[in-house]
Specification:
alpha+beta, Cyclophilin, 6 helices, two-stranded antiparallel ribbon, 186 residues
Length: 186
């Protein structure tokens, strides 16, 4: 009987350690290769597969050029090939209003009337300055001008082009809400 009690205690201790490890570290993050359709995953460079942080930087052939107008400034950007980005493309041109600057000081958001599809995309992302994202819990388009940590519910749609990125980041950072954002195909 004593051996059974000790065995049960050991099993409970191992289960508790496993649970605590999972709760402290969180669930496993999806890799870039899991997010990109299988037909293109083999074409990605090793550098691209190492980080979800810059998952918006997929192959040039998979990116769709767009224009983002804020005030009189027009910036070039590209959207990726995700189902979420394709849903945005289907609605272009669109005019959105940035109503608030959110509780996160490194992003500006514009509420969307309807949720966008996210099936087959990672559960979250770690956006970089210059990324364009979608916040699924409260359907919103997000323009990142500063660094934001990984959050579940963030979906990277694309990013400002390298030639416009730093100017766009500074310009977005300087905007006061409310302001209009016009997104159209290039």
């Amino acid at each position: 009987m004593k051996k059974i009690v000790i065995g049960v205690i050991l099993i409970l201790i191992v289960a508790m350690i496993g649970f605590l490890s999972w709760s402290w570290c969180g669930p496993r993050l999806a890799t870039f290769a899991e997010w990109v359709p299988q037909s293109t995953a083999s074409q990605t460079t090793p550098a691209a597969t190492t980080s979800m942080r810059h998952s918006a930087r997929t192959l040039a052939g998979q990116m769709t050029p767009i224009r983002i107008q804020i005030g009189k400034q027009i910036f070039r950007a590209h959207l990726n090939n995700s189902v979420t980005a394709k849903a945005v493309l289907a609605k272009l041109p669109v005019t959105l209003t940035v109503q608030g600057l959110t509780t996160n000081p490194n992003e500006h958001t514009a509420a969307l009337k309807r949720a966008l599809p996210i099936k087959g995309t990672p559960t979250g992302a770690d956006p970089a300055p210059g990324d364009i994202g979608y916040w699924a819990p409260e359907p919103s388009l997000i323009l990142y001008w500063g660094d934001v940590d990984y959050f579940n519910g963030i979906h990277i749609l694309g990013r400002f082009d390298q030639s416009d990125r730093q100017t766009a980041i500074r310009y977005i950072h300087q905007q006061q809400a409310p302001y209009q954002v016009i997104i159209s195909r290039n």
